[in-house]
Amino acid sequence: MIKTIAALVVAAAILSAVNLAEAQQTEKIPRIGFLAGGGSALPGAFVKKLGELGYAEGKNITFEYRSREGRTEGWSDLIAELIRLKVDIIVADGSGPAAAAKNATSTIPIVMTSSTDPVGIGLVASLARPGGNVTGLSSVSGELGGKLLEILKEIIPKLSRVVIPGPPPGSSTQDLFIKETEHPARALKVQVTRVAVRGPEDYENIFRVATKERAQALVVRIPPNVPAGQRKQFVELVAKRRLPAIYQATNWIDAGGLISYGADRNFQFQRTAVYVDKILKGAKPADLPVEQPTKFEFVINLKAAKQIGLTIPPNVLVRADRVIK
User: Fold this and answer.
1) Residues near 293 by Cβ (< 8 Å), separated by ≥ 6?
2) What is the pLDDT of residue 23?
3) In DSSP terms, which residues pair with 64 in a beta bridge?
4) Strand 31-36 vs strand 89-92: parallel, antiparallel, or unpaired?
5) CATH tag for 141-263+296-324 (out of 3.30.200.20, 3.40.50.2300, 2.130.10.10, 3.90.930.12)
6) HEC per residue, the chain
7) Higher-pLDDT residue of 206, 74
8) Residue 13 clears pLDDT 60, i.e. is over it
9) pLDDT of 35 higher than 70
10) Which of 109-113, 227-231, 288-292 has the lowest mean pLDDT?
11) For all residues of the chain together, what is the average pLDDT?
12) Which of the following CATH numbers is that of domain 31-139+265-287: 3.40.50.2300, 3.20.20.70, 3.30.420.10, 3.90.226.10?
């Protein structure tokens, strides 16, 4: 009798172990889709932060990275591909991919790494209560126009005319930026001229307008997530014209640009990972407030300054978070 009971206990234990093993093998590993404008790999800061939160690719998370680098199709094709793959979350690097993803799905959670005006362009109902399937980070870049002009004015004291290349009229993010920049521009006695940029085919027109307007500098509003090749092409054209230019993301400086000031993108990617973790643990995007950036980065490229014969004042240099020599 005792032997029979013991045998039953052993059999039950074996069956339980088999069932547990099968459950572990069939347990679904979360799949994260990442939409980027350029590049060939996931941002290191994003992956590292997920690792700190306990995620390891292939073990308890998988990634589907999709970039427009070297591709002619729009966001909709890349998003459709991610939807077919049944990703659990879509991470969108910027307002454009976030808006396209929202148009494509109302059920898959979407986490944006940055957006100039997520409320104004209809991504969320409000920053405090997004209310839909989109949440994440705001870049508040529309409010940075005055700061960018102030930096240029410190470097070029006689600055009086600036050209702002960026999305064409009708783009709510660019419209907001121009509106927010008008008042500080008047205070600094700087005239600003807007130039529409839809792609590299418009780059030469920027410099035609700059020459016509006798502009002394550029405040570049071309999205930082455009393909790396386009960034490099633009930076080289700027250097050729010997025009000082200030950007809002450090990847322009990595491409050879002069100055950048804006939300720290590495920190934004780290915070994006936190949002992904919260959603995977059951939080709903509708209930996760959109964060505004709390960490900014100021970078100066002295190589680029030397190339165009520009001297950066010491009082500006000492405030930089990073100086490329």
Assistant:
1) 114, 137, 138, 139, 140, 263, 264, 267, 268
2) 43
3) 33
4) parallel
5) 3.40.50.2300
6) CHHHHHHHHHHHHHHHHHHHHHHHHHCCCCEEEEEECCCCCCCHHHHHHHHHCCCCECCCEEEEEEECCCCCCCHHHHHHHHHHCCCCEEEECCHHHHHHHHHHCCCCCEEECCCCCCCCCCCCCCCCCCCCCEEEECCCHHHCHHHHHHHHHHHCCCCCEEEEEECCCCCHHHHHHHHHHHHHHHHCCCEEEEEECCCHHHHHHHHHHHHHCCCCEEECCCCCCCCHHHHHHHHHHHHHHCCCEEECCHHHHHCCCCEEEEECHHHHHHHHHHHHHHHHCCCCHHHCCCECCCCEEEEEEHHHHHHCCCCCCHHHHCCCCEEEC
7) 206
8) no
9) yes
10) 227-231
11) 89
12) 3.40.50.2300
Confidence band (pLDDT; 50, 70, 90) for 130? Answer: very high
Beta bridge partners of 298: 261
Reply yes or no on whether the pLDDT at 112 is more than 50.
yes
141-263+296-324: same fold as 31-139+265-287?
yes
Both tokens of 299, joined, read: 């970078």
Domain ranges of the chain: 31-139+265-287, 141-263+296-324
170-182 pLDDT tens trace: 777 788 888 889 9
Q: What is the pLDDT of residue 309?
A: 96
